[in-house]
Design a protein that fits this description.
The protein has 20 helices and 25 strands. Bound molecules: fructose -6-phosphate.
């Protein structure tokens, strides 16, 4: 949450800094700001709202200066306002910060007691004061960063400029993502590679406790013990460098359309073309008595769905936990458990803490993450990359189906390792299921216009109910989450069989009930539940396949989703639900990529 960028080069940087944070808007868009050093002074511009508001300001009143920092904010301490927008400038320093300083109250009292005054309610301004004081006493920005870091509790990535040096940027991080990059005559820092991808060929990912001094063409990194270190460099990925939405109306829609390509990429990476073997690091899980899967939000729903696969295909008992609950319980953990953590960002504070909890008791965790240099990828014992490329839409789409694909392949490989399925059955699953999945998504996307027609009617509804049975139950929850987060329609996903245990009371004349009902062994039961709702006035919309459509149309509106093998169905239905949410949000006039109050990487608890 919050995105930071810093740049130094041979020409004014303000405009490029704004472009950089524009690429980080998925991390927050409550307010934005930029500051540069010029002629011994720190100058800044700040604006409430998305980065485009700052862009207009900077275009109208340009900022000079060849070194600067910028920030896009997701408010934690203090409302979105210009005073609370970063950069915070105190005395000789300008600071941008991503993360939370947990002991900011105590530090603020200490600073007030020595006569310091505050302009904002942010925890960041406290850091700026401390850095200003430390710099005043030691005169060295790197030392000041070290001194101040030791006083801070919580997680942070900080970028700093100092008025006395127009040729340097400084940065440090603890449990917050930060990358740096150098090019001839220039240097950059950012929350992630995508912000600076247009300017650089390669990046270095800083580690917890690192501090960096950036000068034109040169970066010095010191680790926590003050030793000069060289962090590994990696090339900028194609998806990080991609500029925009292309022909699509939103990043979310672009990412929905990217799903077939991502799934093909995963197939090529996970399945050995020559031997047909699935190559994923799941061997250590095979002899466990139980799997614990944990995540937040959409990634949690991917885990709930995968439970059906781990139990059915691999015969492994499975429990699924919200990471924010797992980490604060005293969970019964033993070496008989295998733990899997699922996250797009690899940064989500609760999932990371749950992973650390598991590793701290000597268990080895598997992280299924999209951002491969994230904290979770670094700290887990085993990692599966979901290969979805940078996901910019706040509502997760391609990362979700990529998580499902990684989990399905893991379940198949575990089934083989545990002797539940023979090699020839694995081959059939690869050929008859995995290979059909990208096409299933393509065919579902082709139903977009019909889904749009339905979704437009949803946009004005006060509430919507999603139902499903079996793997379609977690999908119902995911469909409801998507609709809530971008269309702002109050939606809930229920197990179809649970409707009569309470939720039926919500049904009024015309209440939309969206049923995920492929024609499988549970189809008739799901339909009976929809019928019970329809008898009380609900307006059903049934997503089913060619075999189910005849029956479904007798109950209400229905749509044929491509007929694919059962294990491939969730990919098709998930795509349909994403399209429904997108079209409903667009019909409501909402900004699909910037849903209110949300941000993508949830690095706070
Ligand atoms: C919903 C969504 C969120 C995330 C959740 C976890 O569309 O994107 O619910 O799934 O914040 O994030 P990650 O997967 O990065 O741990």
């Amino acid at each position: 949450m919050c995105g930071i960028v810093g740049m130094i080069n041979g020409h004014p940087v303000a405009s490029d800094l704004v472009s950089g944070i524009q690429r980080l808007e998925y991390r927050g868009y409550d307010s934005a700001g930029v500051a540069t050093v010029d002629g011994g002074q720190i100058r800044r511009r700040r604006a409430v709202g998305p980065v485009s508001a700052l862009r207009s300001l900077v275009d109208q009143v340009p900022l000079p200066g060849h070194a600067g920092i910028a920030h896009t904010r997701w408010a934690t301490h203090g409302a979105p306002s210009e005073a609370n927008a970063h950069p915070h400038v105190v005395g000789a320093v300008g600071v941008v910060h991503n993360g939370i300083i947990e002991n900011h109250d105590e530090l603020r009292d200490e600073l007030l007691a020595i006569g310091r005054t505050f302009e904002s309610q942010t925890d960041t301004e406290v850091v700026a004061h401390l850095l200003d004081l430390a710099l005043e006493s030691c005169g060295d920005p790197m030392m000041a960063l070290r001194e101040v870091s030791t006083r801070l509790e919580g997680s942070f990535a900080i970028g700093m400029i100092v008025s006395s040096d127009p040729d340097a940027l400084y940065a440090t991080c603890r449990n917050g993502p930060l990358v740096v990059a150098q090019e001839p005559g220039a240097a950059y820092l950012a929350s992630d590679g995508s912000a600076i991808a247009p300017f650089v060929d390669a990046i270095q990912v800083l580690e917890c406790g690192d501090r960096a001094e950036l000068r034109r063409g040169h970066i010095r990194v010191l680790d926590e013990r003050d030793r000069e270190v060289e962090r590994p460099t990696r090339s900028v990925r194609e998806s990080e460098a991609e500029a925009g939405m292309g022909e699509f109306p939103s990043f979310m829609m672009k990412e929905i359309h990217e799903q077939p390509e991502v799934l093909e990429r995963q197939l090529a990476a996970y399945v050995d073309g020559a031997t047909g073997a699935i190559r994923l690091p799941v061997e250590t899980l095979a002899d466990k008595d139980q799997l614990i899967l944990s995540a937040c939000g959409t990634s949690y729903y991917a885990c709930l769905l995968a439970r059906y696969w781990f139990e059915e295909i691999a015969g492994m008992p499975c429990r699924v936990d919200l990471a924010s609950e797992l980490r604060y319980r005293n969970p019964a953990l033993s070496d008989r458990h295998g733990a899997i953590f699922v996250s797009q960002s690899g940064e989500t504070a609760d999932t990371l803490a749950a992973l650390r909890l598991v590793e701290s008791v000597g268990m080895r965790s598997l992280a299924i993450v999209n951002v491969e240099e994230s904290a979770m990828a670094r700290e887990a014992s085993f990692v599966i990359g979901t290969l979805a490329g940078t996901e910019r839409g706040v509502a997760s789409t391609k990362a979700f189906t990529a998580q499902l694909f990684a989990l399905l392949c893991s379940a198949i490989e575990l089934g083989r390792l545990r002797g539940r399925i023979a090699d020839d059955e694995v081959q059939s699953l690869i050929n008859e299921v995995l290979h059909t999945i990208p096409q299933a998504v393509i065919l579902t996307i082709a139903c977009s216009a019909r889904l749009q027609a339905y979704a437009e009617s949803l946009a004005s509804q006060p509430r919507a109910i999603f139902v499903g049975r079996g793997p379609s139950f977690p999908l119902a929850m995911e469909g409801a989450l998507k609709l809530k987060e971008i269309a702002y329609v109050h939606a809930e996903g229920f197990a179809a069989g649970e409707l009569k245990h309470g939720p039926l009371a919500l049904i009024e004349e015309g209440t939309p009930v969206i049923a995920i009902a492929p024609h499988d062994a549970l189809f008739e039961k799901s339909l009976s539940n929809v019928q019970e709702a329809a008898a009380r006035g609900a307006a059903p919309f049934i997503l089913t396949d060619a075999d189910g459509i005849g029956r479904a149309l007798k109950l209400g509106d229905a749509l044929v989703i491509p007929q694919v093998p059962a294990l491939a169905q969730p990919f098709a239905y998930a795509t349909a639900l994403q399209l429904i949410a997108h079209h409903a949000a667009t019909a409501a006039g909402n900004d699909v990529d910037r849903p209110r109050n949300l941000a993508k990487s949830v690095t706070v608890e």
